[in-house]
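Exercise 7. Given the encoded structure of a 536-residue chain, write a plausible sequence.
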């Protein structure tokens, strides 16, 4: 979750970090530079990034993926590499029972916390039980750890311990899941499965002094100013190639800094991307592009009238000119979506039949729903994030609905920093804009996570017993082709019920200075700053 994920997109937090790298010698004139200069860092071997203020550094409740500071400070039994393959982290290896329901993990004997204390199987159990405990307030633990027997009982407050976990010895952990699921290991790469130190997390304000197990230590975090990571010499895998990672969280225009050679990596879009795509522009040689495993969508609150009516949802869907949105708002720099699954995810075909722009059909559907006179349609709200003004996407959608259906939609602005918290609390209004990025490359991470009735990420309140049954069957299907075919059929049925309008899949465009080596543009966020090298 995004993934997530995991993050969720919203797009208030989808890209939690607008990343940019720089050499310290170019950052000598700002207040942030004065702050960084006070720390003992190797300026020639330090990545400088720009980022937003972290919502939290607690792996159990973060909505950020492995690509940010949380994924640098902490780690789990397994991780995803830049090829999106599961690789062993704290676990040196594992065995799976013949029936696929018992995993035995063998922990590295050299895996230690930042303070040098060895990591044990009991530490993993504590971390997962803490994440599942109701007092922690994690809204991702069921999604990513819920396959483990006993997690549901802990989250419901009916048990203190997860019955499916057993420490065979200090370095051997047995995990029992409720059914054989091919994607289970991939789920353990999400931060909610990271290991925390029980002594550390019991301290006040522990997030400003976390004792993690990842490749970096938190050296400094000043809210809305700077966050500094230092390389962890005790890291059990090859140590980071850079000595520090500095996230500047103050004001600044990353693109302008990049062009002044003050930063070495920046995400771009719009007119800046058009410039970089010009082969005559010097920026063109720095450009890296790819397709993100993300979906941007407008969700309907399926729980409440009038969007509990399929005909109303379909009418609103047919009234939206998706291609016009792509051309007018994104300059064509996104891919149109026909369903929730993005290109690159296993099972994606693009061969999904869904609502296409047809104003006449939209009006007919609305009339069939009982609103032949659009003046009788109730006023509905569109929940979105922003400070003081409504964004162009929401403005365009409201205008399309007004012009093509004759209905009134009122925007409701929420603080972007708390937007996801409000959505998860159920404050979605009648319509809301959001999104989802893969936390692991499997269709279950979209279709099950977003649309199963019991999923906490099902912000639309979409409920369909038949779809639930099909999703549950697909979870345990061992034949790959049959499994992906089932997900294709499920996606088609979901799209036909229009719980949301699936808008687009984002493209990633990054400018990278030549001396930044080993950086990989990936379709989903993975931890990789410890693999990046800076050539002089």
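Solution.
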């Amino acid at each position: 979750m995004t993934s997530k994920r995991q993050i969720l997109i919203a797009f208030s937090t989808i890209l939690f970090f607008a990343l940019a790298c720089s050499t310290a010698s170019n950052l000598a004139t700002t207040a942030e530079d004065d702050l960084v200069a006070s720390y003992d860092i190797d300026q020639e071997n330090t990545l400088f990034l720009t980022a937003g203020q972290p919502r939290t550094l607690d792996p159990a409740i973060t909505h950020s993926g492995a690509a940010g500071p949380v994924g640098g400070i902490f780690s789990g039994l397994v991780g995803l590499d830049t090829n999106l393959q599961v690789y062993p982290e704290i676990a040196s290896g594992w065995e799976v029972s013949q029936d696929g329901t018992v995993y035995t993990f063998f922990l590295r004997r050299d895996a230690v916390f930042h303070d040098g204390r060895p990591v044990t199987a009991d530490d993993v159990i504590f971390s997962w039980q803490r994440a599942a405990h109701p007092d922690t307030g994690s809204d991702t633990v069921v999604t990513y750890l819920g396959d483990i027997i006993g997690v549901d009982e802990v989250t419901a407050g009916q048990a203190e311990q997860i019955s499916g976990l057993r420490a065979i010895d200090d370095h051997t952990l047995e995990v029992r899941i409720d059914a054989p699921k091919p994607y289970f290991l991939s789920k353990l790469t999400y931060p909610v499965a990271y290991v925390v130190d029980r002594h550390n997390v019991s301290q006040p304000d522990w997030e400003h002094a976390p004792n993690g197990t990842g490749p970096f230590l938190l050296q400094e975090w000043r809210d809305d100013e700077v966050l500094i990571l230092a390389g962890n010499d005790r890291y059990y895998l090859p140590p980071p190639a850079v000595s520090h990672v500095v996230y500047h969280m103050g004001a600044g225009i990353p693109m302008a800094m990049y062009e002044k050679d003050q930063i070495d990596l920046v995400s771009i879009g719009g007119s800046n991307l058009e410039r970089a795509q010009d082969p005559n522009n010097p920026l063109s040689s720095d450009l890296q592009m790819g397709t993100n495993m993300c979906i941007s969508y407008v969700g309907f609150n399926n729980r409440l009238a009038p969007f509990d009516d399929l005909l109303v949802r379909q009418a609103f869907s047919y009234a939206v000119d998706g291609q016009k949105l792509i051309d007018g708002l994104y300059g064509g720099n996104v891919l149109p979506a026909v369903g929730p699954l993005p290109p690159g995810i296993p099972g994606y075909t693009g061969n999904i039949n869904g609502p296409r722009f047809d104003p006449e059909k939209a009006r007919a559907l609305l009339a069939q729903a009982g609103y032949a006179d659009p003046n009788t349609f109730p006023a509905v709200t569109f929940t979105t994030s922003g400070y003081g003004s409504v964004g162009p996407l929401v403005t365009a959608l409201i205008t399309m609905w007004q012009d093509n259906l004759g209905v009134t939609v009122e925007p409701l602005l929420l603080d972007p920093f708390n937007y996801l918290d409000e959505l998860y609390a159920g404050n979605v209004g009648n319509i809301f804009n959001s999104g989802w990025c893969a936390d692991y490359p499997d269709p279950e991470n979209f279709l099950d996570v977003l649309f199963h009735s019991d999923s906490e990420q099902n912000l639309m309140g979409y409920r369909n017993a038949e779809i639930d049954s099909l999703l549950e069957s697909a979870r345990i299907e061992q034949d790959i082709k049959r499994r992906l075919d089932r997900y294709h059929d499920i996606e088609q049925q979901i799209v036909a019920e229009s719980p949301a309008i699936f808008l687009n899949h984002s493209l990633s465009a990054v400018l990278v200075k030549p001396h930044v080596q080993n950086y990989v543009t990936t379709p989903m966020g993975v931890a990789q700053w410890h693999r990046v090298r800076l050539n002089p």
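Remark. The chain has three domains: 2-72+203-290+509-534, 79-193, 294-507. Students should compare their own answers with the one above.
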